[in-house]
Amino acid sequence: MSPTAARITAVDTYDIRFPTSRELDGSDAMNPDPDYSAAYVVLRTDAEDGIEGHGFTFTIGRGNDVQVAAIDALRHHVVGRGVDELCADPGTLNRDLIGDSQLRWLGPEKGVMHMAIGAVVNAVWDLAAKRARKPLWQFLADATPEWLVSQLDFRYIADALTPDEALALLNSGREGAVEREGVLRERGFPGYTTSPGWLGYSDEKLSRLARQAVAEGFTQIKLKVGADLADDIRRCRTARSVIGPGIRMAIDANQRWNVGEAVEWTRALAEFDPYWVEEPTSPDDVLGHAAIRKAVAPVKVATGEHVQNRIVFKQLLQAGSIDILQLDAARVGGVNENLAILLLAAKFGVPVCPHAGGVGLCELVQHLSMFDYVALAGTTEDRVIEYVDHLHGHFLDPVVIRNGHYAAPTTPGFSAAMRPESIAEFTYPGGTFWAADLARQGLTDQKGAAA
Predict the structure, then answer these.
(1) Residue 23 above 80 pLDDT?
(2) Same domain (yes/no): 310, 204
(3) Which residue among 130, 355, 367, 405 is the active-site one?
(4) Based on the domain organization, do 211 and 113 belong to the same domain?
(5) Which residue spans traverse the membrane (predicted)?
(6) Which of 44, 146, 295, 437 has the smallest CB count inside 10 Å?
(7) Are the C-beta atoms of 16 and 423 separated by less than 8 Å?
(8) Claim to verify: residue 199 and residue 101 sit in the same structural domain
(9) pTM for this prediction
(10) What is the band of 4 on the pLDDT scale with cuts at 50, 70, 90?
């Protein structure tokens, strides 16, 4: 590398939070008051093109300060790296971040540190795709199978997926890729919506939003369940009466139940023909999911948004524990690890229906599913991307939904960049919204104390 070659000069972090709990947006049986948040990172360089890499991981409020601190702890691995080398081989940084032994001790490859790695790695992929002048899904689909395999970490998964098997899957996936890319650009990728189904919503709001979802072309909705069975029966009956028998309805317990409860509760809701039951128990309980799946069939079992890494996904697949794999763009170690998970799913023949919603997860994960369709799995059958209809306006390249489908992004990068004015307003605690909000709370507290 020449002395004048561009380098990463800064890793800037932001604690960005939105007050979604005040309208009960995002509420479910385990998370009644989420404030959707992003631990947000910007990679800055001294390159003349001025291109930056943007990434983030999703949290739901107070944990965001811990998450930002974890990203900050990785800064020394990134600053000073050559931009050309980094974008040509993001896997090198991924291995260095995972291999920091003192930070690895906090995992390994799980929890806050692993999510921080994902945020940084995703920012690198955003930078690389922007410099290639391609949206990330196309950047991945155009890459050679050999290069993609070089980006994967096969440690701990080689008993289920070898490099040769991964290469064969990717070579096979290239057959017909040009035609599928054309279909993707024309039709988009099918989505489903959780927007009607938050647990805190009234029956009137549930009905109105479910009816609206069908009118907008969605062929699947999802309802949160798990707090009260009688309430769930009423809400499922309400939703089914609105959408009719031809629309799929999934239910999501957000890890609420023990194994026995999950079986009993799902059977109690079976009359409403749920397509899948999501996160019925702890995401770490591989054998519990297998037992639930056997007991509640033909209702499918789905999980993945809280699965910590490729190793747990491997075991879920090996044990026959899930019908639907729900990867998350930011829970694991970023694009590199999600590529490994997509390949594991392809090897085992399990459809991937990603978790999205939150802050920016829809923007990110659409790229992974579109790559999977164009250059790996080669189908959208029984595959849908979750969609939630809030907070997209804070992104420079927000998702576009047409007739219940995600339109293929055309802007270079990972669709991760937030609007500067949104960052200025919702950075916690000094952004304009939070500074004013905290000041009002302070006045209220003072009045209460005086009274």
Answers:
(1) no
(2) yes
(3) 355
(4) no
(5) none
(6) 146
(7) yes
(8) no
(9) 0.95
(10) confident
C-alpha atoms less than 13 angstroms from C-alpha of 412 in its C-beta half-sphere: 11
Which amino acid is located at 348 in the chain? F
Whether 42 and 188 share a structural domain:
no
Q: Which DSSP string corresponds to 195-234?
A: EEE-TTS-HHHHHHHHHHHHHTT-SEEEEE--S-HHHHHH
270-300, pLDDT tens digit by residue?
999 999 999 999 999 999 999 999 999 999 9
Comparing CA positions, the residue from 330, 333, 351, 332 lying closest to residue 342 is 351
Q: Which residue out of 114, 224, 289, 314 is catalytically annotated?
A: 224
Looking at the structure, tell me whether residues 50 and 182 fall in a common domain: no
Q: Are residues 183 and 128 in the same domain?
A: no
Alpha-carbon separation of residue 411 from 92, 397, 399, 408 (angstroms): 26, 7, 11, 9
| End-of-domain residue from the set 100, 134, 168 | 134
- For the beta sheet containing 8-17, the strands, ordered from the edge strand earlier in sequence to the opposite edge, are 8-17, 37-45, 53-59
Rg of the chain taking only CA atoms, in angstroms: 22
CATH classification at residue 221: 3.20.20.120
Statement to judge: residues 128 and 185 lie in one domain: no
Q: Which residues pair with 161 in a beta bridge?
A: none
For residues 75 and 218, membership in a common domain is answered with: no
Structure tokens at 35: 């404030």
List the domain range (segments joined by +) for residue 25: 8-134
Spatial distance between the Cα atoms of 451 and 441, rounded to a whole number of angstroms: 15
342 in a domain, yes or no?
yes
Residue 442, pLDDT score: 82
> What are phi and psi for residue 210, nearest 5 degrees?
-65, -45
Does 73 map to a domain?
yes
Phi, psi of 183 (to 5 degrees): -65, -45
Angle at 190 between CA 188 and CA 193, to 5 degrees: 125
Q: Is 355 a catalytic residue?
A: yes
Question: DSSP strand E in 21-170: where?
Answer: 37-45, 53-59
**Residue 262 CB partners (closer than 8 Å, separation 6+):** 253, 277, 280, 281, 288, 292, 296
- Tokens found for residue 419: 């609007």
Q: 171-226, pLDDT tens digit by residue?
A: 999 999 999 999 999 999 999 999 999 888 999 999 999 999 999 999 999 999 99
